[in-house]
Specification:
binds thymidine-5'-phosphate, globular, Rossmann fold, single chain, five-stranded parallel beta sheet, alpha/beta
């Protein structure tokens, strides 16, 4: 059987990703696609427990500890959810994946890229998304949106310089793998983004089916 289709959505906090993840899931299901909608950190019982810890702990967390925990959650997610769903030939739509570790722990926190590359190679040496949609907004736009959240998490509480670095690291990652990334302007009106998304998803579906 043909391997399933692996799609990831990325972007800095406040880029508008969540709205578009839900819309894209409906779009794919409406086209008869067997869809696994999931997220990182999370997606498994252990992963969701790690998520809670990563987003809410008051304890000091070393940047490399944070990176290791993200990849621990990812290892379990791949085992329990992502790989089985792809092996069944379905589509996996994942709200964040390893690009987020390069952006947040690498760019944001300053973890060395070569160390993250070791973890990436350890945890999924043979698997990359077929399509990664990067919702791109400036750090200021992201921050202005996040400022409206009543109880921001550990990441959402970071300052503008942090998100400038995260965004830059996403854009660098996109430059390194231009074949799998598409950039969406997250400041465009929602219907415009959806029209573009529909186009990109239709294209990847047609490539996948042939
Ligand atoms: P979310 O709010 O988009 O669900 O993501 C939760 C937070 O986790 C978000 O601020 C980004 C962060 N994150 C990392 O720092 N590294 C990672 O590898 C992942 C997957 C998420």
């Amino acid at each position: 059987m043909k391997r399933g289709l692996f799609i990831t959505f990325e972007g800095i906090d406040g880029a508008g990703k969540s709205t578009h993840v839900a819309w894209s899931a409906d779009f794919l299901r409406a086209r008869g696609i067997t869809l696994t909608l999931t997220r990182e950190p999370g997606g498994t019982v252990l992963g969701e427990e790690l998520r809670e810890l990563l987003l809410a702990t008051q304890a000091p967390v070393h940047a490399e500890t944070e990176a290791l925990l993200m990849f621990s959650a990812r290892r379990q997610h791949l085992e329990e959810v992502i790989r089985p769903a792809l092996a069944r030939g379905g589509c996996v739509l994942c709200d964040r994946f390893t690009d987020a570790s390069f952006a947040y722990q690498g760019g944001g926190r300053g973890v060395e890229k070569r160390k993250l590359a070791v973890l990436e190679d350890w945890v999924h040496p043979d698997l990359q998304p077929d399509l990664t949609v990067l919702f791109d907004v400036s750090a200021e736009v992201g921050q202005a949106r996040v400022a409206r959240i009543k109880s921001p998490d550990r990441f959402e509480r970071e300052n503008a310089e942090f998100f400038v670095r995260v965004r830059d690291a996403y854009l660098e990652r996109m430059k390194e793998s231009p074949h799998r990334f598409v950039r969406m302007d997250g400041t465009k009106p929602i219907p415009d983004v959806q029209a573009e998304l529909a186009q990109k998803l239709t294209l990847i579906l047609s490539k996948w089916k042939t």
